[in-house]
Amino acid sequence: MTKKVLFIDYDGTLHDSDAKYARRLDGILGLDGMQIWKAYLHVHRGIVHVRYPEKHDDFFFHQRLLFDYLNKPYDDKIARTLAGRFRQAQQETWTNPTFYPDALPFLNKVKENHALCLTTGDYAPEKAKALEKAGGVSYFSYTFDKDHLGLKGHGSSYYNNAVMSTKSRPEDVLVIGDSLEHDIAAAKGAGLATVWVNRRGTVLTENLPGPDFQAKDLMEALSYIQNL
User: Fold this and answer.
1) Which of 5, 28, 54, 143 could bond to 124 as cystine, CB 3.0-4.6 Å?
2) Diameter of the chain measured on Cα atoms
3) Whole-angstrom distance, CA of residue 152 vs CA of residue 183
4) Is the Cβ–Cβ distance between 124 and 144 less than 8 Å?
5) DSSP 8-state class, residue 216
6) What span, in angstroms and rounded, lies between the C-alpha atoms of 166 and 162?
7) Does the reported pTM lie above 0.85?
8) Beta strand pairing status for 5-8 and 115-119?
9) CATH architecture of 5-16+99-226
């Protein structure tokens, strides 16, 4: 087995962030929380990241687009409620996390033979501490987020910067994540090998590069890594 530097995503890969946000957003605008969360992801990833990357952290700009996308008239009071619920859900991803059942067993196995780096969008140190508190051990040699490296999915600069920051060779790195665009395509653009953790059975689209390996969960990803 070849020793690898593993760049591991947090939200949707190790942590069930979708359920966390859906629960907090449920009932706003008379909609199901998951419906609102999926609409927000479309706005954030499909519109803001593509057309307005400089607005990445402008939540109220996102909300204007979100109301339009949901065909709802903009309401400032509801917008403030949404903002508060989003902040609560975001904080709960590390203060009251919901890790997938395979997350800690996976980390406990791969840390034996590989260097681990948490590569997430935001609050990487807090998320790493939550995992280490849950597992009772230190997992990560590095923790990276947009404040250190730039935006995930915005070209390949995030992963290029991560490789340089860890003083790794691209051929020694394996990226593990759940987002085809922000994890897999961005990493492939940096010349890195990838494992797509496709928990929901999403169909691979032709407009994005395919992963080197597709796993239904982290245990299947572990089997692939152990055979490298």
Assistant:
1) 143
2) 56
3) 7
4) yes
5) S
6) 6
7) yes
8) parallel
9) 3-Layer(aba) Sandwich (3.40)
